[in-house]
Each structure stands twice: as C-alpha cells, then as structure tokens.
Amino acid sequence: MRRRLIRLSESDFYQVVGRAVSKILCESYGKEIDWDHVDEIVFSCWYDDDDLQDAISNGDVDNTKEGINDWMYENLNFSIYCYDIDGNSLGGLDTTQDMMDYDGIPQDYIDLIVGEYNSNPQCNHEYRIRDIIYGMANSCGNIDDACKKMFYTTDEYYKGAHGFVLKDGTIVIMPQGGDHNAITSVNGVESKWQFVEDGNPSILDNNLRVGGSLTYDQEAVIGKMIRCYSDDDLYVDFLGGPKGEQTCKYSYPDYRRVFADIDRYYDDGIIPQGDGF
Q1: pTM of the prediction?
Q2: Which single residue of 65, 81, 129, 181 has CA 20 to 30 Å from 250?
C-alpha cells in the first residue's frame, strides 16, 4: 500500500508541538520544586527530526496531525529549570515525556510556560520567563497572600531576622542586602511606614517598629525577638498613634513591659518612657 506523505504547515506543526508541551507539563514531575519561590523559569523543547522522518517513512507513525501529536508526546525532549529571586536553582527536569512520572506542576505555571511558547513557537529554542513572583503576587486577592508569595517567610523567629510580622505571626523576610522598602513592590503597599501602621510591625536586629497593638500571634514572635536581646538594648519606634510618632530605648528589655507600653500608648494615649533614648 502506498502511503501519502502529508506536509504540515509551519503553523499546524507548532500547534501540534504546543499541545504536546501543555500535555507534558500537566503530567510532568514537579514535586521537589518549591513553586512558591520560583521567580524565573528557563525551558526548551526539541525533537530529533531524523527520528520523526524515519518513523513516518517506516510506517511507525501516521503522517497526520494526530499521528505526529502521538509521536511528539512520547519523543519530544523537554527541559525546565527553576530559579528563585536570588538566582539560586530550585531544581528542574530534563527528560523525554515517556520517562516522566505524574506529579503535576501548578496550573498557573503551566499557563505561563505554554503562553510564552505560544507567543513565539519554536523548537530548539531557549525560553526565559522572569519576574514570576511579582506577577503571581499581584494576582493574589489580598496583600498578606501577596507578601507570602513574593518573599521568603518563616513562622519561627531567629536572631537578626529582617522583615515584617504579619497579623497571623508569619515573618516576611526582606531580601539579603535590601531594606524594608522592598515591601512596596507588593501591589497595594504604598510605603513601608504605612505597612507598619496597617498592623505589620517591622523588625531588624534589635530595632522594632509598631503601628498599633499586637495580635496574639505577633506577640509570640516579637516576644521571642525581645528575649533574644534581653542582655542588650531594644529600640522601639511607635508610629502613628494618638500623639504621633514616639521613640524610646529599653535597656535589658522585658517583653511584658514593652507589650504593656504598646497597649497603653495605642489604647489610652499614654506616651511610653522606656529607659530614655
């Protein structure tokens, strides 16, 4: 039987490859990647054209869109590598589809990759998607979720932590070498001071800035911070409040005294005295 050779147009071929890319991502191994901290994805896909033509010539593949799609699904080589905001590798994969295990990549990231590929469909081409954290954060429904998406976070205070304490006690860690102004990269945060006054204390070594009474979860974190500096001085800035900004120093601070001063100032307008400044 004589086989008729079908020539796919370039656009038809790239549609076939695009579907294969999407299918690969949906069924690819991604368990070990910390997707919340992915800020850059480098990916590429390629195939061996000689293998494809041999498969068609030998009758192993139907020379139709469906036949080529099936061949691509099993033979398209695919790599994806992920990096955090500091350029550190978060892992990746480099394999053919038929060697992949099902575990899944989050749909948001699949959409990013497929969208980037479809914007300029090419095989044997390296694609880079940057500033992913920023885009993902700005798609969040509220500022707290955006902060958790954009920055590293921890639930455990450690001495020297540099960032903000959200109302649920989550510590949002600012980037190494940066300052608290980085928080303004979150959509809806106009200034670091306003963020503090909105109820998110800032911490930096033995410096604490508050903008109101603390939640129970914030007290747990900041209490641990104060205890870390119980043999030192603690500097506290009281932003906003009934009588404007106040600043004082606590020598050999006790967290109970500091918390009492915070509550008295914001609830009753009593200016904290500390141990001078």
Answers
A1: 0.66
A2: 181
